[in-house]
Amino acid sequence: MTGKRHWTLISSHGAVLIEVARDPDLPVREIAGRVGLTDRHAYRMLADLCDEGYLVRERVGAKTHYRVDPKRPMRHPVLADHRVGELLLALAGTEPAAGDGD
């Protein structure tokens, strides 16, 4: 018999998105630690989420602030009629407000 395979229901991207929704001002090192990633991998997840419009990166003084767009659709075809805000409400206990003009 082989060993148990390790897998999760939420991807690293999803876990990073949830942590950002919980605290948009978390430093990357803190996000990485909470999600179990290296800092470099967390930066890559954040960049991917920004590139696809799920996050907006803003500089606030010396800090980086991330804003989640809760209106973005879920990426999996089975869930495409649902919005990210629904996931965040269920798992993070919060649905971030849409940005100005949304």
Report on this model:
By secondary structure, this protein is an alpha+beta fold. The chain has a single domain (12-91), classed as Winged helix-like DNA-binding domain superfamily/Winged helix DNA-binding domain (Arc Repressor Mutant, subunit A). The protein contains 4 helices and 2 strands. The protein has a two-stranded antiparallel sheet. It is globular. The N and C termini lie far apart (53 Å). The model has no long low-confidence stretch (mean pLDDT 89).
Strand order of the largest sheet: 1-2
Question: What class do helices, strands and sheet pairing give?
Answer: alpha+beta
Q: What CATH architecture do you see? A: Orthogonal Bundle
Rg on CA atoms, Å: 14 Å
Instruction: Pick out the low-confidence regions.
Output: none
User: What's the shape?
Assistant: globular
- Number-wise, the strands total 2
CATH superfamily: Winged helix-like DNA-binding domain superfamily/Winged helix DNA-binding domain
Strand content: 5-15%
Q: So how many helices?
A: 4
* SSE arrangement, N to C: HHHEEH
- How many angstroms separate the termini? 53 Å
How many domains? The number is: 1
CATH topology tier name: Arc Repressor Mutant, subunit A
Bin the helical content: 25-40%
**Residue-averaged pLDDT, rounded?**
89
Q: Biggest sheet: strands, sense, closure?
A: 2 strands, antiparallel
- CATH class call: Mainly Alpha
